[in-house]
Design goal:
The protein is mainly β. It has one domain: Methylamine Dehydrogenase, Chain H (7 Propeller), CATH 2.130.10. Helix content is about 0%, strand content about 45%. The protein is built from no helices and 34 strands. The protein has a five-stranded mixed sheet with strand order 1-28-29-30-31, with no helix packed on it. Strands 11, 12, 13, 14 and 15 form a five-stranded antiparallel sheet that branches. A four-stranded antiparallel sheet has the order 2-34-33-32, with no helix packed on it. It is globular, with a radius of gyration of 19 Å. It starts with about 50 loop residues before the first strand and ends with a strand.
């Protein structure tokens, strides 16, 4: 049964920021005996894009991946979240958030969110709640039933995926003005607004939250570091072009990209550590694993693009692989020695898997006349968003 949500018209209550402790955030997905989860955009609050718990599929057997299932909610570019055996994803044309059984594809519940632009956003799942933005409303649904926990309907137009950390939900929005970007922090349990930071330009960059700091990029060429409890500006770094990739934070550095380069800056001071030029514009979020940074870039006009592997400490190029055009904001991911990325040659799209250390091609899905986005690997299954059909999945062939 399809459920609908009436637009929330309640007023936002402006609260004094709660005295949350700034606990150290450990980046890495939840781990338990039954399921290894991929709970939010680019795996974790640091946006590493790296699943360190995946052991089923790797360099030795990835060429045995076969098409398995399409989760038929409809066309989407929304990267999925996979938590405790349930696949959560958003379908833009239908304006619907789906929860399907990750193994069988059977629908568990669906909820109307009524916002086409949200098809670019990944849901975030934390403590039994699913968070997703639609238009100027941030929703919280019960992860098991789809029931509405709360809906804050007094926000600007939401333009990013949510990030959930230490009892707060962080999200970026567009206030429809010259300096129109806004970062919000809301109470994850109630939806009450804790703080907002105004003054940046429009942002398509989902916030990363690490060690009490929120990091987010903006079209004004800046990456901002904000106090996660108060929203006060700590520092900002100005790049050469608009920063539409989401920051990845790891080991004291913030990695991001603009139209011409990949950057690493100090997470505490915002000072430049290194900058590495790339051949094509980048809107993807870097993935980082085993001392390497992986990022995709592409140019729609000439259909060219590449997957780059850079040294995380120096920015030195280790290898690159030509993937054709990469649709923004499709981002690479890494698991068990393999880096996954999407590819499009102007006619057909595919997902490729390369040996993370060398860039050797190990796997390419069958070409399809479609655009693909943001592959993830969790519990031995490769999932990716398909702009025509929904979420597709691959698993190992049974010999």
């Amino acid at each position: 049964m399809k459920l609908s949500i009436f637009r929330c018209l309640s007023l936002i209550v402006f609260l004094t920021p709660l005295a949350y402790s700034q606990s150290v955030t450990r980046c890495g997905g939840p781990n338990n005996a039954l399921y290894i989860n991929w709970p939010m955009f680019h795996f974790d609050v640091c946006h590493t894009g790296y699943n360190p718990y995946e052991t089923t599929v790797g360099v030795g057997n990835i060429n045995s991946l076969d098409y398995w299932l399409t989760y038929a909610g409809g066309a989407t570019t929304s990267p999925p979240a996979v938590v405790n055996g349930t696949l959560y994803y958003y379908s833009g044309p239908q304006g619907t958030l789906y929860a399907d059984d990750a193994q069988t594809g059977k629908e568990i519940w669906e909820q109307g969110v009524f916002h086409d632009l949200a098809y670019l956003h990944a849901p975030a799942v934390a403590n039994g709640v699913v968070y997703i933005g639609g238009s100027d409303i941030l929703y919280a649904f019960d992860a098991g039933t789809g029931a509405v926990r709360w809906a804050n309907g007094g926000l600007a137009t939401i333009t990013t995926s949510p990030t959930v950390s230490d009892g707060r939900v962080y999200i970026g929005a567009d206030g429809q003005g010259t300096s129109s970007g806004i970062v919000y922090a809301l109470n994850a349990a109630t939806g009450d607004l804790l703080w907002q930071y105004d003054g940046l330009q429009q942002t398509q960059s989902s916030p990363a939250v690490v060690n009490g700091v929120v990091y987010i990029g903006s079209d004004d060429r800046n990456v901002y570091a904000l106090n996660a409890v108060t929203g006060l500006l700590l520092w900002k770094y100005t790049a050469l072009g608009p920063v539409r990739s989401s920051p990845t934070v790891f080991n004291g550095a913030v990695y991001f990209a603009d139209a011409g380069a990949v950057y690493a800056v100090s997470a505490t001071a915002g000072t430049l550590l290194w900058m590495s030029p790339v051949s094509y514009p980048v809107e993807s979020t870097p993935a980082i694993a085993n001392g390497m940074v992986y990022v995709t870039s592409g140019n729609y006009i000439n259909g060219k693009g590449a997957l780059y592997a850079l040294d995380a400490a120096t920015g030195t190029l280790h290898w690159q692989y030509n993937v054709g055009f990469v649709y923004p904001p499709s981002s690479p991911s890494v698991a068990n020695g393999v880096v996954y990325a999407t590819s499009f040659d102007g006619t057909n799209g595919a997902v490729v898997g390369l040996e993370a250390a060398t860039g050797t091609l190990l796997f390419r899905s069958l070409p399809q006349e479609t655009e693909n986005y943001s592959p993830v690997l969790v519990n031995g299954v490769l999932y990716y968003a398909d702009n025509y059909f929904g979420i597709r999945s691959f698993h190992l062939r049974v010999r």
